[in-house]
Amino acid sequence: xxxxxxxxxxxxxxxxxxxxxxxxxxxxxxxxxxxxxxxxxxxxxxxxxxxxxxxxxxxxxxxxxxxxxxxxxxxxxxxxxxxxxxxxxxxxxxxxxxxxxxxxxxxxxxxxxxxxxxxxxxxxxxxxxxxxxxxxxxxxxxxxxxxxxxxxxxxxxxxxxxxxxxxxxxxxxxxxxxxxxxxxxxxxxxxxxxxxxxxxxxxxxxxxxxxxxxxxxxxxxxxxxxxxxxxxxxxxxxxxxxxxxxxxxxxxxxxxxxxxxxxxxxxxxxxxxxxxxxxxxxxxxxxxxxxxxxxxxxxxxxxxxxxxxxxxxxxxxx
Length: 318
Hints:
Layout: H1 2-19, E1 24-32, H2 36-43, E2 50-53, H3 60-69, E3 74-80, H4 98-111, E4 117-122, H5 130-143, E5 147-150, H6 159-165, E6 170-172, E7 175-176, H7 183-200, E8 202-207, H8 211-220, E9 230-231, H9 234-244, H10 267-273, H11 277-285
Parallel strand pairs: 1-2, 1-8, 1-9, 2-3, 3-4, 4-5, 5-6, 7-8
């Protein structure tokens, strides 16, 4: 009788087990638009890897259009005040007036019209201050349809908390893939990302268009399905977290790229059906030469790890 009860209980659990979602990860590649070859390689990664574009970088319009045509979510990589060193030319500072802040934000958003989400570029200082974060999240909510990903360049960040207070769809970065660019370190962070997803159901990583990072993702993303891991866009990750963790979600719908807004359509189908793709490819293949001006990748916190030496010494700041 006891064995029969156990068998019946196991059978009753089967629908729950069968209906359970596999662990999911999202990946965001930051600092795109500054260098053509690396940015284009990121936009052409397999699957719904999100592309975070630096505003007014020389190749941002071309790469954002290409990423959207490839069915990827495009994000604005919004420059915020770092803890030290120089920031991006459009960096929002805590000393800026409300008018200056609004002008910089609107200029940055206008530079990436495809953006469906925002994450911070640098920002260790500004994200640690509640008042500027209250202003930013309210401004993004008023813009409509955007989500915010807290890059967590500072352990003292107030960004995610302020976003939730204003019902702005939001999540946080759990893993920086390439704080160290050595092969063993990259593979270790990748495995940590998968382990966090298996433990918590979801996990989000940020990387940069380094050759080592791109090679890792080109190799590992096609293996995810066999490992029982789903790669999903950040907007989908936010929705799943809002359901599974019982968190509040914004009443306003998220604004997605055309490919992402059509359930069941693969990124490749979106490319084949998009007549603008050939024009975009031609534009990317024959760019006008522009001198690079953007800063290097954001350094990480949680845990603090000394970044690998930059090709441009003095440019890595949080």
